[in-house]
Amino acid sequence: MISEYDCLIAPVMTEKTMNSNKDGVHVFRVSACATKLDVRRAVEKVFKVKVAKVNILNRDGKKRTFRGKIGETSGRKIAVVSLSEGKINFEGGI
Residue 91 and residue 74: Cα distance in Å, rounded? Predict the structure, then answer.
């Protein structure tokens, strides 16, 4: 089990995720070793809300070419958190 503040890296702030915030669904970038249970505990402790469901996505890095050399961008792990009660306010930061 990892620390709550090591588990959550940053909220994903895109137009699509901000529209889903109204429905109680929030998206976070999480640590590569975080599990669903770690994410649930971290969100409940940091934001003091009740979590209903957590889904995790592992996004692979994309292949890129720069000056004739082939490389790869880093992958990321994303957690989609559905709240049953409470509201998250991002003004204070994580």
Answer: 28
Among 24, 10, 16, 4, residue whose Cα is nearest residue 90: 10
| Overall fold of domain 4-85 | Alpha-Beta Plaits (3.30.70)
- Which tokens go with 80? 């989609």
Contact call for residues 10 and 94 (beta carbons, < 8 A): yes
DSSP letters, 17-53, are: HHHHGGGTEEEEEE-TT--HHHHHHHHHHHH--EEEE
Contact 73, 62 (CB under 8 A): yes
pTM: 0.84
> Per-domain residue ranges for the chain?
4-85
pLDDT digits (tens, 9 = 90+) for 49-94: 999 999 999 999 999 999 999 999 999 999 999 999 888 877 766 6
